[in-house]
Amino acid sequence: MFRRLATALGASQAARELRWMRAAAAVAGATDLDAMVARRVRGEPLQYILGTQPFGPLNLLARPPVLIPRPETEHWVTKLADSLAPSVHNPVSLLDLGTGSGCIPLLLCHLWPPGTVRAHAVDISPHALRLAQDNAALCGISSRLCDPKTPHNTFSVSTANLLAHDFAETASRIHSSYDIITSNPPYIPWKEYLELSRSVINFEDPKALFGGPSGLEFYHAIARFVSSKNILKPDALVALEVGHDQASTVESIMLATGKFQRTEIWLDPWGKRRTVIARTRADIL
What we know:
By secondary structure, this protein is an alpha/beta fold. The protein has two domains: 2-42, no CATH class; 71-279, Vaccinia Virus protein VP39 (Rossmann fold, 3-Layer(aba) Sandwich). It has twelve helices and nine strands. Strands 5-4-3-6-7-9-8 form a seven-stranded mixed sheet, sandwiched between helices. A two-stranded antiparallel sheet has the order 1-2. The protein is globular and about 60 Å long. Keywords: Methyltransferase, S-adenosyl-L-methionine, Transferase. This is Release factor glutamine methyltransferase N-terminal domain-containing protein. GO terms for molecular function: protein methyltransferase activity.
């Protein structure tokens, strides 16, 4: 068993993963460890085999073909949570575009105090929306205010296509306007998509990865969306994850909307320019 895994992954990585799979098999009881190893040898991502992926202090469910949360996303979402301080007296409305597992809004709901955020998430994939709802239930985050006397954050999902011409109308029906818009959209251009590992190409949803020939298709759609009347509140912030060489271009796309007075680019833990932050006011934190 170890030899098969080591041939595919190398000895040190195989030892770590086999330990994790043994632990998962012990918890699941009936799970066949041999079957888990066979799936991994075929290239299936470990997160799908284990069924979970840590994301900050959360341990989220992971199911194919929904995009597996990445550490670089965890990094900027945690930084965003630390940089803002929503209050229970003035809760923020947040929209997450292409939510996948729901990792971005759910981590923010977890990190911000109860009653400070009303999070909404959209995705075109029914698999993603089901997983996001399951993760919200796992995290104990309700879709509505059950008891107005007990402050708590909420998370709801809707089916929507960001590239559709009427997406702004769909979003405005969910909520009239937003304080925060977040997204880790598909941003991999065709040439780079073809060079991805087989564990990504063969198992994760290409619609969550491929951002058009240039990789910028969804950023242009987001720019059109935020340019819509009244979508952004006066003190709004937009946070967008980007590809390794896209930050300056995406920053320019956001500035070209005329909606933002200040932008900045955040680095990921490996020094990549990973997140574009755009603010409608120059003086907000």
